[in-house]
Amino acid sequence: MPQINMVEALNMALREEMERDDRVVVLGEDIGRRGGVFLVTDGLIDLFGEERVIDTPLTELGIIGFSIGLALYGLRPVAEIQFIDFVYEAFDQIYSNMARIRFRSGGMYNVPLVLRSPCCGGIKGGMHHSQSPESLFIHTTGLYVMMPSGPYDAKGLLKTAIRLNDPVIFLEPKSIYRVIKEEVPEDDYTIELGKGKIVREGGDITLVTWGAMVHISKQAADIVKEKLGVEVEIIDLRTLYPYDKDLIIDSLEKTGRMLIVHEAPKTLGLGSELSAYIVEEHVDLLYGPILRVTGYDTPFPLAHEKLYMPNIARIYNAISKLMEY
Amino acid sequence: MPQINMVEALNMALREEMERDDRVVVLGEDIGRRGGVFLVTDGLIDLFGEERVIDTPLTELGIIGFSIGLALYGLRPVAEIQFIDFVYEAFDQIYSNMARIRFRSGGMYNVPLVLRSPCCGGIKGGMHHSQSPESLFIHTTGLYVMMPSGPYDAKGLLKTAIRLNDPVIFLEPKSIYRVIKEEVPEDDYTIELGKGKIVREGGDITLVTWGAMVHISKQAADIVKEKLGVEVEIIDLRTLYPYDKDLIIDSLEKTGRMLIVHEAPKTLGLGSELSAYIVEEHVDLLYGPILRVTGYDTPFPLAHEKLYMPNIARIYNAISKLMEY
Amino acid sequence: MSRIVRGIDEASIEKTLGIYRIIDEEGNIVGDEPNLDGSTLYKLYEYMVRARVLDEWLLKLQRLGKVAIHAPNLGQEAIVGAVTPLKPDDWVFPSYRDLGVYLVRGMDEEEILDRALYNQDDPLKGSDFAIYGNRRFNMVPTPVPVGNQIPHAVGVAYAMKYLDRDSVTMVMFGDGATSRGDFHAGLNFAGVYRVPVIFVCENNQWAISVPFDRQTRSPSIAFRGLVYGIESIRVDGNDVLAMYKIASEAVEKARKEKEPYLIEMLTYRLGSHTTADDPSKYRSEEEVNRMMKYEPLKRYRNYLIFKGVLTDSEANELYRRYYNYIEDIAKKVLNKGGLPHDVFFHNVFEKLPWNLQDQLREFRESLELMKSLGLEVD
Amino acid sequence: MSRIVRGIDEASIEKTLGIYRIIDEEGNIVGDEPNLDGSTLYKLYEYMVRARVLDEWLLKLQRLGKVAIHAPNLGQEAIVGAVTPLKPDDWVFPSYRDLGVYLVRGMDEEEILDRALYNQDDPLKGSDFAIYGNRRFNMVPTPVPVGNQIPHAVGVAYAMKYLDRDSVTMVMFGDGATSRGDFHAGLNFAGVYRVPVIFVCENNQWAISVPFDRQTRSPSIAFRGLVYGIESIRVDGNDVLAMYKIASEAVEKARKEKEPYLIEMLTYRLGSHTTADDPSKYRSEEEVNRMMKYEPLKRYRNYLIFKGVLTDSEANELYRRYYNYIEDIAKKVLNKGGLPHDVFFHNVFEKLPWNLQDQLREFRESLELMKSLGLEVD
Ligand SMILES: Cc1ncc(C[n+]2csc(CCOP(=O)(O)OP(=O)(O)O)c2C)c(N)n1
Ligand SMILES: Cc1ncc(C[n+]2csc(CCOP(=O)(O)OP(=O)(O)O)c2C)c(N)n1
Ligand SMILES: [Mg+2]
Ligand SMILES: [Mg+2]
Fold it and tell me: pTM to 2 decimals?
């Protein structure tokens, strides 16, 4: 099996789903001839024509509002927002409609719409090409939220998302679009909603993370092992809502120590919910505090983004602190 | 001193600030002749004319985008969003501009804009006249967020908000607009940003809350005292970002038990951050878990809103559980 | 300026600046009557009467504290003319002020009252107030944020065309809604993709307290349609025949040519914005009285009497019949039980995620506790 | 259709559907020349040359890996004509493709390069890429989300009028931006409130890969202005004299009458969207070559030579002079140091709230730790 990157895996997922079900359509800015600015939709217009691979005018509100209509009538739109940082014009459509139509209609209508978008930092994208706003969607109620950390998961999760009968926010960490290659089968496989994965086993600390931070966390874990002899278990959540609480609890039963790593700003990043949930329901599992290594509570900067984002030193530091308990 | 309600107190604050500083202007839908649908701006158009009391077209994006311009040029706009549930069309302007212009411009420009809006449930307003989205603003980074629980604080906080050189989201729990009356001086007083208040003293449990939930919490505390003999200390945060961590810590030093009550959905409600912060930095103060009594993770319903919102029984229940530690 | 630039010519502009009408405020014929048989003419009247009577009842039930809020449709009943040409498979996105639309689509008074009272039979299960809809009638419940439904309708129309269906979509919204991004995006998409959607803007001159002049400086709403490449017309929205005729043409064009269409229904909101409003703060009674003479029922009744389709006493009898009919229904629906306590946990997702399962468990415990504490369960 | 409905008459519509120009693509005079002295005529040319040379240098620095991203302005240099009539107290909201605008406002090449490299002298302190602005020049840095600045400009213009200032505001944006809610809301507010704002839409036919036809079915962008009650005109945007003349009129009108104005600058994006783009995927080289003959510098040079304001060799010399000038500046700025590591903690708020103080402390510790772990501090 050849190794492919995440862009290719996503492209494969879209192509296969479009072949499988002609209700699947893709739309967004520059996703046609241009193939998307990151080429995730590359070539689809040649295969499926411009009625199924729909270039839109420049309005995110329009893209999502229109996609909701497509979904109401039974299509399965996959809408690309060019960068998640541009989604906010559509926030009313997302918050008040995409997430609420099933509820508003007493269950008569549903919105099987996937909003996929490149997210997160690491490409020197500055304030508006780097953000990690998953919290906003998770708090909305009515949306599933996913973020893969590599090509294999990306394909399987996107297929799952497309087949769900409820709306999904599908976030793609762009900094690893082309960096990580994996074997990705041409078969039809899906990855269950709400299931995380242990990507590194260890008995001392449970490190919960997702997206590109999985890889930084692994590097940090190796250094920590080497320098401190500490074994870190790393959980890649993959689905951020609903997150895999059982996997976290099982791991904490071994380790008793918890660290969360994410790129989003600390205050009300998903880390706060994970921490609060464990303290509320499973405080007895803990030896000490739950720590968070996250983006700072500032806008995402262009200058020194590598220092703004969680890095090995900060993870190392948090692990050392946790090992004091 | 006569007793007045929150609507009157807010009206007084606006009038006094407009008299004090002619850069203060108010704007929004139906805030002129109509005086706002809750009458917070009632009479201002007669005093200050329609150039300072500006009825706008029906677009929240327009209201906030335009207000940002007013603020950039040195005015001090107070923009009303008729219900906070309608703010989302403006979310791009809020998230990408109102909260980011100081940062984007390297500190050269600032946006002294107050977005005030009725929020929260309790008036049978259904999905789109009842929500408590403070988390979205707190996580944005770059916004101050306030929510008063009574007339006196409402006046003082609004004056503080208007005089700050940074943007403020000012949320007004509409269910208590006319229910609670207090003595409110005609003087010019302000309430410091970031300072909470102990509204009930007690040594057993620290209950952190804000807005209309302050009053439900007080009622619950009385019942708990009567039935269980437990003394609850209630903190009204007043400012939600930055929240008054010192007041919480001081109280926890006495009580060792923490309960958070808010109307917003549980997952990633501000309660999660308060909990995560205490566990991260002050875990040693705690005897057991930190509990949350909140809105459920569903859209805000019309039917049975009183059961959806935190109520006395749920608070009672949480307190009983906490007292097991 | 007679050259045509992308559909912009003198005639197309004139259509957006004039006012198309067939009968005047006295019921006199001043335009081209459509070719309709007596029973169709009568049906239009009957729907308008039903809408008006139902409106009165909803106001009454609101005053009695049974209905939380109601947005009166007094003066705007001629909207029934816009929906009558539609087929059952066509989709409608109504506004919140559209009692006549719900009735024409097949929703009956009982279902509307169940909804207004959100009792056990509420089809929308107590989700929100003052909104109506039902999949059975291909009528999507209105989002309360004004204008949200506009791009939805365009998406539905695109899907109809994509799936080669013979259907069209119609969407209603007010003059205030035209200021929103949803309007701009929706009409632009429709213009670019050429889909079978009919936009009906009920320009009732007011958005709560904001008059049309303060909402926009566009010479008309219809004129706005031209910048999206959409054929547009301004119609006397209190003339149900004009509404019917133009809508029929628009629906046919949309169905056959897969083309969008904008109808500005020029009308006037005679009542308060909602039962929570106090219009005396911002507009004079004199203006309302002046506008009363243009209201749609009286003129159409005169026309029908002139045509021999109706007599005065038949008209009065029709009104009384529906008044009593709704009185009976009101009694019935007021006696129905409420929705289950845990109703709001359902219909968030197809299946409850674990956190909602946990919360539902806690919720049920809390109901027990309420009882044991002697607290009232709502 | 000669009757006037709120400013809609034949002439006003014609202005939005025609193309106003003064010199053609060969530099021949085909319209009314403005009355300008030689030095003003020369200045316009000099700014265009500076913009073009700077553009070339930014592309070069990007290829060398020194600049992260650049949005070329090749072909759109005549935008300098729009800003030249403004006074220092007037405010400008530029777009990201507006090198000439920054120069006319007084920002020099060194500051622009400091910004592009976000070095220690970056006035915007490393906040974002490809944006420019400075309070000293009353030029607000562009938000990256397309169109956000449009309602801001209207607010500033309102404040100018409210405070009785003698100033006006000008805002630039692309054809793609007209699809956004910001455009719709901004123009509507300007139309309703009658404020001194000049909208300049640089319609360069493309929004990345989306051609104008797929962006909107409006016959022109200028035509769109009419629905907001705004006087509007379409101008040959590669004719710097036409741009200058119309902008002068618009600025004067805005200043005196406190009225909004929309100028559609009809132009063409000759380069890629940004250095990250690959236009070969969506448009033909043949189209670009065809459009090259309309580019603004050549035709204006011909005109100036014809007018005796410039010789061919002076023109070449001017180009070379700026080329070398920027070469020197590039060397200088590349040697400047970077911004402090903790720069991003500042300018979130006027004062650091406690959580940012705590985080700043942790941040400083982490820098120490990085060093001790032998990790590179960026
Ligand atoms: C986005 C949004 N903002 C504000 C409101 C509050 N509101 C409800 S109806 C209304 C006026 C609507 O006017 P119009 O569109 O003309 O419809 P009409 O009520 O006249 O039928 C307003 C401001 C809302 N529902 N949605
Ligand atoms: C809201 C938003 N969506 C998407 C983008 C990505 N993007 C950057 S420029 C651009 C095209 C802009 O086209 P236009 O407005 O015509 O300006 P031009 O680049 O042609 O000067 C797009 C889609 C963005 N910056 N902002
Ligand atoms: Mg209206
Ligand atoms: Mg363009």
Answer: 0.98
